[in-house]
Amino acid sequence: MLTLKLILVPLALLCVSLFSQWWGPRVAGWLAGLPIIAGPILFLLVLTNGPEFGAQAATLALAATLSSEMFNIAYARSCRRYGWPIAWLFGIGAWLATAVCLATLPATLPFATMAALFSVVFGFSLLPRGTVILPQVTVAKGQLLARMIAGTVLSFTVVSLSAGIGARWSGLLSVFPLISCIMSVSCHKAYGPEFVVTLLRGMVWGRFSFSAFCLCLSLTLQKQPVYLAFGEATLLALFIQFMTTRLIIAPVRTC
């Protein structure tokens, strides 16, 4: 269990950081929308607290795509006017307000599905469009290490506190916009707001596979063995991600 906590989330952050170097912000955002952090955290929650707890947490994680997207929208719409500290505060404020609202609403699968649908609609409607000429992205080793440490801290915190805070907040916190925070701030400082807007808009495409992953877990965790349920959810997420490949990768290759 300790090994999984130390490896899963930091490795996922490392992959996204490297892809941002190779493919630019649009593809990095597309990959960052995958359950690369929430997925490992939900897996650890199931191993720690059982399938019933995990299924409820997955339902809240599905709903929490809305709060995560609200961070992206607030940051993207403020970063062109303000520096990264103010934009980050706007983003965190939007995430917290939405997460608190979600915590007080019914934790049902139909509601969570509607919240995830709204997150995609709001993302495409409210996120500004970037007009950036993509630079060659380089991520220093120190930044990579800091991102991996932040991922480790988040996974440790959520799993360690899960018994006390319950499945509702465990699910909501598993979708804390850690990647959005790290990559938005670092890219804002290094490449400017237009780069960040392109990055965050790319994340909307990852919401489809993320939502499918959480929805599959909510439906199967209490009916199937844990590893089978996560395997099916992962394959479904990868299939949906593959279906969006032409919409994301192809335009980048032709730039």
TrEMBL record:
Record keywords, A-Z: Membrane, Transmembrane, Transmembrane helix
TM helices/strands, residue ranges: 6-23, 30-47, 86-105, 111-132, 144-165, 204-221, 227-249
Name of this protein: Uncharacterized protein
Organism of provenance: Paracoccus caeni
Source lineage: Bacteria, Pseudomonadati, Pseudomonadota, Alphaproteobacteria, Rhodobacterales
